[in-house]
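Model it.
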Amino acid sequence: MGVLDFIRLLKSSVIIVSLTLVCALIVLVVGFLGLISGKRVGPGDSFGFAARVRRWWASAILFLHGIRIQVDGPGKAELLSPEGLIITSNHQSALDIFVSSLVCPNNSFFLAKRELLLIPFFGWAAALGHTVFVDRRQGVKDEAAIESVRKLLARGDNLIIYPEGTRSRSRKMGKFKRGAFVMAIQLQKAVLPMSIQNSIDLTGRFQLSLRPGVLRVWIDRPVPVSGLSLEDRFDLAEKLQKIIQSNLESSSEGSALESKLDQSSEKLETGVS
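Modeled.
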């Protein structure tokens, strides 16, 4: 690791850990006071405090690293649908969590592995923000988790899920697991594809080492599931994966073209042929 890489990693670690700890403590304290007063702090409740803190947390981390988000696509307006959606996204790096927290509306919640609940402060604050923790060994057979998801979607909240199940750490996506699509069919909720196109370019070898730049997100229109049966879950997963992978490949080609144009401009300016 070079000196600059170490400095970048140290800076990012201090910023992310400090802000996460502060925000988690704020949510826990306010959540405790809310329990006493009878109010709640979930994303879809009238109080909505945890969702606002989560958005501030993500915004502050990206701002302090000089990262801006550019959101495009025909499905942008659909994010505000009152029906409740299952938002599926690729997962290149740890940066995706911050991006999803900012791009998706406040009434959105994550599905996460149950082990994260054991992380002091962070896991507890996430639970207050209505993150649903699932036992990965049970998957869609985790009835308690599925029931929590069903109730939140029924009131119009959006589920954010990364069907790969883990970070790909590249533009090449891992195969989508079927759980998200089983839930979509069972609960009859449309699936919205969200493509985080270049978060891998803004992270170093270490996931907490963030670089400044513009992070591009493409939102497609929701894919309806009306009339589908559980037998269609494989086709649905494949369709969503193809949509997102196509967006990643298009973004990669565009980035390569921009790089060539920049190099050509530099040669012209310096008189090099």
